[in-house]
Amino acid sequence: MPVFEVEETPKEKLIQFKQESMITKRNLEMFKKEAHRNVVEALNEIRLNSFINIQSREEYDTWFDEQIIYFHQVLLPYYREDLKIQTHHPYIYSARLFTQYMKFFCSRTYLFEYNGLHYIHILHPIISNQFIGAFPKLGINTVGDILNREQYYGVISYFRYLLDMKVCNENEPLLSLEVAVDY
User: Fold this and answer.
1) d(Cα 77, Cα 161) in Å, to the nearest integer?
2) Hey, what's the torsion of the CAs at 161, 164, 165, 166, to 10 degrees?
3) What distances in angstroms separate CA 177 from CA 48, 117, 130, 134, 169, one per listed residue?
4) What is the pLDDT of residues 34-76, one digit of tens each?
5) What pLDDT does residue 78 have?
6) How many Cα atoms are found within 13 Å in the side-chain-facing hemisphere of 15?
């Protein structure tokens, strides 16, 4: 198995550029006004070197759970106070930003050229109200209806089920969702 590592040279600068590029006004709306730098620092804490070598969905889910808990704790002080952010529930806002960054990173860097289909296969979808609205069978109306890890992974399991099927009426809405965009 080839092992890859992000070097501490121009690639590091590329990653930092990618972080700045994906931090859009829409992404920052859920944070306090002065939090931009803190959000970028939280993205810097994601262990990309260990991600690059992940081979399966199960490995990714384990890695994601480890990363998202820490990521969420780092971001907690910077979320707007009017949002209903739960200390021990990183599977809404933090998971969305984290997943958006991972998709952005994988689809807009050298990783996609190296093994893009693999990353599409293992990454979680960016769960937004648009995503949830495209799949009424989920039984969830909004992102805020995801109350815990089990419900989050229920959405992930359904997404993966659809992704593994041949194109049909049930999974056709996947084709209209864009990868790594700010919904």
Assistant:
1) 36
2) 160
3) 25, 16, 9, 9, 15
4) 888 899 889 988 988 888 889 999 999 999 999 999 999 999 9
5) 93
6) 20
* Dist. CA 56–CA 41, nearest whole Å: 28
Whats the size of the chain, residue-wise?
183
Tell me the per-residue pLDDT of 10-30, one tens digit each, with 9 for 90 and over: 445 444 545 556 666 777 788
Strand partners, 29: none
Rounded Cα distance between 70 and 73, Å, is 5
User: Please, are residues 31 and 97 in contact by the beta-carbon 8 Å criterion?
Assistant: no
Model confidence at 153, pLDDT cuts 50, 70, 90, reads very high
In the block, residue with structure tokens 């992940």 = 54
| pLDDT of res. 75 | 94
**Domains in the chain: boundaries:** 9-113, 125-178
Bridge partners of 79, per DSSP, are: 31
What residues pair up with 31 in beta bridges, in sequence order? 79
CA–CA separation, 71 vs 76, rounded Å? 9
